[in-house]
Amino acid sequence: MTEARGSAGRDSAAYAPGTPCWVSLMVHGMTAAQEFYGALFGWKFEPGAPHLGPYVRAVLDGHDVAGIGQLPPDRHLPLAWTPYFASDDVDLTAETVRHCGGTVGVGPLDASDAGRLAIASDLSGAVFGIWQAAAHLGTEITEVPGAPAWNELLTRDSSSVARFYQHVFGYEVEPVVSADLDYNTLHIEGRPVAGIRGVGAALPRDRGPHWMTYFEVADVDASLTHVIELGGHALKTPRDTPRGRIAKVADPEGATFSLVRTSHSSG
């Protein structure tokens, strides 16, 4: 885990292409989701682009940090937080995804005057978004409790999937040299922005490969207790890692995410 961009406040510059710039969750119960995440992270909510269906922006101390949208009643997909990666040309990036063996499931399409987006999946089937910013640049605050801190792909084998993302977004890929850890860190301009973890047979069969969003918290153990009190679930108990203290959880509808207290957090 490391900073997604800048520090606690961001300037008006757009994210560099390939940088995770937004996270979004599609749910069945919008009101319940807002109550859960609002209580857990201190988020307030503002309306999003109306022509994309019911959608709200999560706001932390006046800064946009994430989005939550309403799934159609007949859609029964595994719920998951989805990272969006910045692009200067979403149409070209979407075409590159297809050329590299991925799939584009939604778009590219305009999100009002906010920007242009596509939703795609990689070679392994993990879903991610592509965002070409206009009025809405993306997540406006990082490194504080309640904000996204890191995005990590959980997949069977990291190397082939890492090549896919390298070709699509131009990452510099840095493998972790370890006999018992299959991990690649994705860099933009020498800065780590995301990770790919190969977990082999440990990958959940009911989920398949998927991206995991880590949200910064002031106290992982206290936040885990709060998750359970709010109707969520603990999936992995807190543990200390070189990057910080981490716990894996699920919200009441089953969407998984991780709590992290990183060493550089200002919260």
Automatic annotation (TrEMBL):
Q: Which InterPro entries match?
A: Anthracycline_SecMetBiosynth, Glyas_Bleomycin-R_OHBP_Dase, Glyoxalase_6, VOC_core
> What Gene3D superfamilies has UniProt attached to this entry?
2,3-Dihydroxybiphenyl 1,2-Dioxygenase, domain 1 (3.10.180.10)
Limits of the VOC domain: 19-133, 147-262
Task: Provide the protein name.
Answer: VOC family protein
